[in-house]
Amino acid sequence: MSARLTEQMAFLAEVEKLKSVTRATPIHDASRPENSAEHSWTLALYALILADQAPAGVDLNRAIKMLLIHDLVEIDVGDVPIHLQGGAAHGSAEIQAAEAQAAKRIFGLLPKDIGDDLHALWTEFEANETPDAIYAKSLDRTQPVLLNLQAGGGSWIDYDVSFEQLETRIGTKIANGLPSVWDWVRARVAPWFEMRR
Fold first, then answer.
1. How would you classify the pairing of strands 22-26 and 33-35?
2. pLDDT, tens digit, 9 for 90 and up, residues 64-103
3. 163 half-sphere exposure, CB direction, 13 A CA radius
4. DSSP string of 36-55?
């Protein structure tokens, strides 16, 4: 049992590093950037609070697990802003390969049974095809939008994001799993972009 516990503790020590990964999105008052650990914790709360909005068939516990681990790969890769253009952009083959390698390393720190289960959950989240993953991914896209709105534009200003870009890159992902949430968010975000024209 002591070797297993040592592996579990090594993983837990490693994931503390997520607190040092700075994201592009500022926190609510725009006083500093959010870190990836804060983002993951907040998303777990989103999943809990918005559970009544989840599509049919969603297993809330699995979705929360996905959200708690989905960004652990950023320990190695860093946060890649969704609105970053060119080079190693969000979703590029280069970033996907780096994240897959990071997932293998990080989940490989755990005892095999736990590591394999978490790695499979991470892979499912990335594929975004099951009800649990679609729900989790929709929440992952919702939270930064609301933070940017609270922070007066945040990373939208930094990356010169248009409403059309937001709707294409983010809105479609939110609406895929949470259409009512996207309608609610869109009604609040669209006026902000309109005012900036």
1. antiparallel
2. 999 999 999 999 999 988 776 655 566 778 889 999 999 9
3. 14
4. HHHHHHHHHHHHHHTGGGSP
Over the stretch 31-42, which tens digit does the pLDDT of each residue have?
999 999 999 999
Is the CB of residue 46 less than 8 Å from the CB of residue 57?
no
The model carries a pTM of 0.94
* Superfamily of chain region 2-196: Hypothetical protein af1432 (1.10.3210.10)
Burial of 84 (0-12, 13-18, 19+ CB in 10 A): middle
Q: What's the rounded Cα separation, in Å, for the pair 116 and 96?
A: 19
Residue 121 amino acid letter: L
* Residue 100, both tokens: 């897959």
